[in-house]
Design a protein that fits this description.
The structure is a homodimer.
Chain A lengths: L6 H8 L3 H8 L7 H14 L5 H8 L4 E6 L6 H15 L3 E6 L7 H9 L4 E4 L6 H9 L4 E4 L9 E5 L1 H14 L5 E4 L6 H16 L4 E4 L5 H13 L6 E4 L2 H13 L9 E3 L16 E3 L2 H17 L7 E4 L2 E3 L5
Parallel strand pairs in A: 1-2, 1-3, 3-4, 4-5, 5-11, 6-7, 6-8, 8-9
Antiparallel strand pairs in A: 10-12
Chain A binds a DNA duplex through helix 2 and helix 4.
Chain lengths: ~325, ~325
DNA sequence: TTCACTTTTGCATACGTATTCAAAATATGA
DNA sequence: TCATATTTTGAATACGTATGCAAAAGTGAA
């Protein structure tokens, strides 16, 4: 089998010109039904597939989306990854996966994205300096911050409505009769953690209630250690709002270890609704992030920007839902 | 900023030919130190980066590795994904992520990999028909099955030594005084589940011991349901060997729900050593798969095949380690 | 200096596709 | 039927790079 069958080969066999072959494979080009059939038959016979690199070279466009991710320890993100790949596949786009250890995407990875001239970029977990974000803009590469906002917010971002979620959670806990609450935060420089807290504190303030804030880091270990500290300091509240599920699981395990009854002594509510939250061992009440919708919004924007770049910025917020289980 | 600065632009500014610019960026080409400096200075000034697509078009090679994955619900695999991206990055390769829902990779995804003329392919979770695997061979694209073996084993595979692991686990449980054991399998057509069982049963047979096999599916829910069935049928053994950790966690939760004491009444041992196995709520004894080594072996093979294709097949088995915790 | 030899450079070309433009084919209308 | 409008086609070219080949530049010995 010859490894490189090109449009010219197909053209010869089909008895048409290379241009016609090209047109058959180019979305929206005009070809008569007759030549289309001839070309497809010849292509089938030869096992022809258009060379993506030649295409990209001449169109200066690609069908590759760069997806930047950091925290794969949190099961929420792998799920995001697969949903994105599935969603993009529908439109013929493939995903170039970029993993960063640091919070901020490394220059090397930025170069990769630029070298491959990706059609668009999704940043999930990680952050990106303003400089770098601007350089994508200069190249007219659309960019979406997924579940994060850049402080200078003239970039597009898609989030769950964290403010409303925080409010609803506070109201729910109040309704359940909790008065002495605590918030266990994620990494403190993330917009998600800050906004969840903001909504939460707003509502408590309306009821003239104080709450204690404990800084943590969005990891299981962090949640576990933080809860242990709180218990040992004798500062147990009547309810914990934990900034994400994986931390909340750590909190639950710490409570269990210390023999604190959930939800009788302490209520716990998480955020994300990862699969593990529904496990019989946990049955965690939580706030569901509507991943499908968020992904859909992201893809919609990227597709429209790829069709015609505007660089428009917006902060899209999708509403989530409270999932009541056994920890409240 | 002009979006497309090419080698000719750099050449003009540096006062050399386009070929010289090309040679500066081509690994192993000969350029004098003087022109190299001139070119790099000019490139820096213009913000030049070589166009990957033009490169790939002419060299007929790429720096893209296709990574095919199915089960992201099992935390083992996201970890594998990040380790691969990190390892490949060192050598300048990027990862094209392909997610498949079915066990077998879909034709559409195969086409994607071929269209992008990937330099190599890693199949982790999924399987691939012999036909498809052969077509990669026909294109001289090296292929590694990671943690899986194809039945017709003339393709390269890298696994943990599952046979030895199964043996060691049986011996360990025997030493702990268990006699009446049960194996909870993963998907039954996977080489991993079969080989783990084979080693396990070998050793038990040597001691003239029977064991009960329960078919399950490598998911938490599967482990949970299977264990519940066993308990309700009154068939509780003195020890469970569970084919992976995520299932073992389900088993532990089922046992806890039914008030079965672990390890007093039943011992449980898993496989993989995912992060959650070490959580205080579980403390699962398990078998550690040496991911780093497995990844390293895979990358080593792919790099050598990319340097010069041989299509050689081998079944590499890396030894794992028993991690003793509180469930045995 | 001259000559032989090695290294470096530039020219020209090729990779496989999309796209412009003019020519050819086809459809339309009277 | 012919003349005109419309659609389809093919030839030629461009995209940005790598590379074979020959010319140029550099090196070293005598």
């Amino acid at each position: 089998m010859k490894s490189t069958i090109n449009a010219k080969d197909v053209a010869k066999l089909a008895g048409v010109s290379q241009s016609s072959v090209s047109r058959v494979y180019f979305e929206g080009a005009k070809v008569s039904e007759k030549t289309r059939r001839k070309v497809l038959a010849a292509a089938e016979e030869l096992g022809y597939r258009p060379n993506e690199f030649a295409r990209s070279l001449i169109t200066n466009r690609t069908k590759i989306i760069g997806l930047v991710m950091k925290g794969v320890q949190n099961p929420f993100y792998p799920q995001v990854l697969t949903q994105f790949t599935a969603a993009f596949k529908k439109y013929g786009y493939s995903v170039l996966f970029v993993h960063t250890n640091n919070d901020e995407i490394e220059t090397e990875d930025v170069e990769t994205l630029l070298n491959y001239n990706v059609a668009g970029v999704v940043i999930t977990d990680a952050t990106m300096s303003l400089n770098v974000a601007e350089s994508f803009r200069a190249h007219h590469i659309p960019l979406v911050f997924f579940n994060r906002k850049l402080s200078s917010s003239d970039f597009y971002s898609v989030c769950c409505n964290n403010l409303n979620a925080g409010r609803a959670i506070a109201e729910y806990l109040l309704m359940q009769g909790s008065a002495n609450m605590a918030y266990i935060s994620g990494n403190e420089n993330t917009s998600t953690s800050l906004e969840r807290e903001k909504g939460f504190s707003e509502v408590l303030a309306l009821h003239n209630l104080e709450y204690k804030k404990h800084a943590s880091d969005y990891t299981y270990g962090g949640g576990y250690a933080t809860a242990l500290d709180i218990i040992e300091a004798g500062e147990l509240p009547s309810a914990f709002f934990v900034a994400n599920d994986i931390m909340a699981l750590g909190v639950l395990d710490a409570l269990q270890k210390k023999g604190v009854a959930v939800p009788e002594q302490v209520k716990v509510i998480g955020f994300d609704n990862i699969e593990m939250a529904s496990w019989p061992g946990y049955e965690l009440t939580t706030w569901e992030q509507p991943i499908e919708k968020m992904v859909k919004e992201t893809v919609k924007y990227l597709l429209s920007e790829m069709a015609g770049y505007t660089g428009s910025a917006q902060s899209v917020e999708v509403e989530g839902t409270l999932i009541k289980r056994k920890t409240t």
